[in-house]
Amino acid sequence: MAHAGTTQPVLTARGAGLRGCRTCGKANPAEAAQCLRCGSALLPEPGLQAVWAWLFAGMVVYIPANVYPMLRTLTMGRMQDSTIVGGAVELARHGSWGVALIVILASVVIPVAKFGIIAYLALAVRNRWPMRGNSRHHLYEIVEFVGRWSMIDVFVVAILSALVKFSLVATIAPGIAAVSFALSVIFTMLAAQSFDPRLIWRSTDSKTA
Amino acid sequence: MTQPPDMDIQPARRSFWRNLSPVWLVPVLAVAVSLGIAWRSFNDRGVLVEITFQNAAGISPGETAVRLRDVPIGHVERVAFSPDLSEVIVFTRIDRTVAEVIPPDASFWVVRPEVSARGITGLTTVLSGVYIEASFLPGTDDSARRFTGLETAPLVAPGREGTRITLRAPDGNRLTPGAPVLYRGIQVGHIERPRLMDGLDGIVVDAFIEAPHDQRLTTATRFWDTSGFSVSLGPSGVRLSVGNLASLLTGGITFDTITSGGAPVAADMVFELYTDENAAREGAAIGAAVNALRVSAEFDGSVQGLNAGAQVRYRGVRVGEVTSISPRVTIINDTPSVRMQVSLALDPAAMGLADDAGPAELEQVLSGLVAEGLRAQLAPASFFRTSLVIELVERPEAPPATLMQPENGVPVIPSLPSDIPDLTATAQGMLGRINSLPIEDLLTQAISLMATAETLIGSDETRAAPGAVVALMDEARKLIGSADTQALPGDIRSAVAGLSGVLEALNEQKAVDRLVAALTAAEEAAGSVSTSVEDFPAIAEELRAVVQKADALEIEGLIASANKVLDSADRFINADGTQSLPPALTGALGEIEAALAELRAGGVVPNINSTLASASTAAEAVAEATKDLPQLAARLDRLVDQAEALVGAYGARSPVNEEILSALREARATARAFSQLARALERNPNSLLFGR
């Protein structure tokens, strides 16, 4: 293991000027538009466009998700609209600090953090910021893992809306923000998925190469 | 391995746009949607409308809704004070579509839960909190954005078809806002809050009559208060009138068109509100009618008892009313005198003119009537009432007068002095006479009579009496009519006659003194028991004994003794001393001797014998008859008493009574005869024997 502990430049397909066909696996010349064997269209290199697009969409819909009411609560004939942050503040005011913390975490901190991480990763890849590939990959994995839990708010709203239907006494209806928030989460997840982790390594590789 | 043919490999040439991924559509769409939502929410935010209230009780920003016909059209956004802190300005967001048609006269009020006699309103606001209710008719002028809120809900929602009228009443005691206006028991409207009239007595209250019921309103319509219940006592008894329950609690007003010929009402017409139905029906609002003729009449004396609103009658029919009474100073021959001027309002229709006739026509008619003797006169409203009315009387014999027309003022009807005092005096005199009647004594007597009659009629005896009387009568009649009774006096008489004949014969013949002595003993015996009627049988008994004794007196013994007498007489006569007796005595003795000889020769003795036997039977018959005599007399007495009492009680002279009376008379006569007989026997028992 002469190479152990050292970072050797590894010859990649890209380095060899080849491009793999995703259908049959043949390594085609990088210039080829179609697979020389099966004729499938050779996809262009995964760029950051999709990441940016999804990220942007997610951020756009995140705005109404916070501005508009998430829950429309009708208690004793009295209608109350509560936004995400407003609801968390209300919870905190009633002493449910734990729940308020979870809501804030799941609905505000995590989505914002996701936006930030994805944007950072994308920028880092494009601008070839110096950073260890491992750390970036960890970040990416965290984003991927956490993404699904961001839907907790939407789940809560969906369940409450379905369960609490007592006409005048208490009724909960989802607001526009619920839909926006769900879309935001979905868009963010898609952004994370469309981010090709190989780009992380490519950037580091190319930088080191 | 065959080499594939060299392909024309071309590098991907891509422009910027071509390089653009279709994924970018997603954020573009997201932006579009977000912008859309934002625009819509901005658009939906509504128009800011300011409503000013005295207070904002229960209004909370963001929650309190603004509703139109119970449909939310907006909500309260903010509550703030007016600059001088005197009022509260409620900023509301009203839906743009609605806000565009809010007219400046739109009304807003806060709906709160309210419990009143009419029920509970706004109950939902207990849970949901208050809300602001808007009420308006859509208009085109949408510039109004500031409104003043009402403190209470308006009683009439804008846009309700109907007529608004005003009612005038002396007080608003029983009128609560929202109280129903009823027409024949059906609610057709309601009243608003009563308010005081400026500078006038009484109150006014606006009422709203809903369409189509407002067509029933005419100028002849009268309103009265049906609040609560009323009890009135009149000649026809006690009358209790109760309205419906709601009007009992909250007060209510009923109207009806009592007289015909009213004109359709205009909005905001003023009606009089009467205190009850009778007042409304009697006290027609002639004084308020537009076409009434206003006249006046002047009276010299007191008009006490005459009030504004009193009737004016013509031939007993109400034709108008007194509107006011005021003293007026007139100067006659430089002497001021005060006369009472009474203003009258006369209804042309009531005087028989056409419905559309006005005051001018009536005045014309009236002046004609006055020329023929129509005069105004005070008259009592009714016989027993002290209140007065004005009577228009026709006195053709009155001094001629005309309907005077003062310069400035209403026509004056000439008046007659009233004759009320005379009438009062007459009534008083009559009452005095009635008072002096001995009604109480009469009543007492009548009561006692009644009581007696009641007792008599009620007693079993009286009920049984007629039967008993009849039976008694029959019995009495039978007794009186029986052959025995009838024959009794005859028997006695014949017996006595027989006896007296015998005795006379004996007397005449100057028969035996011993016989006389024996008979005298019998007489004494009879006399000793002749004290009472009851003892009569004993007398008879002794008489019988005497007779028996007489019977038993052997004729031979008698003759023997008579012989002895005769012998001794013979001896006496034949004795020497006797020889010297006067020859008269000797003649007498000779006569006795002859009589005795005659006796002895028979004829007389059997005669006496048979006579005595017949006397004995007669005495026996008498004894038997007289055994019952006292009872009979007593019974007759009782009967008579009873019958008399009965007849006295019955009183009336009916045929039955006549018969009873005659029977009684007969019975009494019989009884009297018996008692006379008894008394005669008592007085002189010998009479039975001697026939005297």
The shape of chain A, in one word, is elongated
Rg of chain B (C-alpha, Å): 65 Å
Question: If you average the pLDDT of chain B, what whole number results?
Answer: 70
Give the rounded overall mean pLDDT of chain A: 78
For the largest interface in this structure, which chains are involved and how many residues does each contribute?
A-B, 30 and 27 residues
Describe the strand arrangement of the main beta sheet of chain B, using strand numbers: 5-8-2-3-4-1-9
Number of helices of chain A: 7
Query: What structural class do you assign from the helix and strand content of chain B?
Result: alpha+beta
User: Helical proportion of chain A?
Assistant: 55-70%
Distance between the termini of chain A: 22 Å
Strand composition percent of chain B: 15-25%
Describe the structure.
The complex is a heterodimer of chains A (209) and B (692). Chain A is mainly α and 209 residues long. Chain A folds into two domains: 45 residues, no CATH class; 160 residues, Butyryl-CoA Dehydrogenase, subunit A, domain 3 (Up-down Bundle). Chain A is built from seven helices and five strands. In chain A, the strands form two sheets. Chain A has a three-stranded antiparallel beta sheet with strand order 4-3-5. A two-stranded antiparallel ribbon of chain A has the order 1-2. In chain A, a hairpin with a 6-residue loop joins strand 1 and strand 2. In chain A, helix 4 runs antiparallel to helix 7. Chain A is elongated. Chain B has 692 residues and is of the alpha+beta class. Among the domains of chain B are: 104 residues, no CATH class; 121 residues, no CATH class; 134 residues, no CATH class. Helix content of chain B is 43%, strand content 23%. Chain B has 20 helices and 26 strands. A seven-stranded mixed beta sheet of chain B has the order 5-8-2-3-4-1-9. A seven-stranded mixed barrel of chain B has the order 10-14-12-11-18-15-19. In chain B, helix 12 packs antiparallel against helix 13 and helix 13 runs antiparallel to helix 17. The chains are: A mainly alpha (209), B alpha+beta (692). At the A-B interface, helix 1, strand 4 and helix 6 of A face helix 2 and helix 4 of B.
